[in-house]
Automatic annotation (TrEMBL):
Protein name listed in UniProt: DUF2164 domain-containing protein
Record-linked InterPro entries: DUF2164
Pfam families assigned to the protein according to its UniProt record, in alphabetical order: DUF2164 (PF09932)
Amino acid sequence: MSNEDKNKIKLTKEKREDMISAIKTYFFNEREEEIGDLAASLILNFIIEELAQEFYNQGVYDSYKYMNDRIDDLLSIQKY
């Protein structure tokens, strides 16, 4: 398994179908366009391949900051 395969976001079939449906609904509600499953799937693939890493990295950073703040809180209860 290549490093690229390990880093790729994997979705369950059900979650992928939900996301495709959400993309189709968005286009219909916001742009008054009906797009098919293929077009929505291609948009989802683009988001996963090109954009998702930034959201993931922001989540990791936010978690890191949160945990560091909690560690600082823990150190404040030391007894001297």
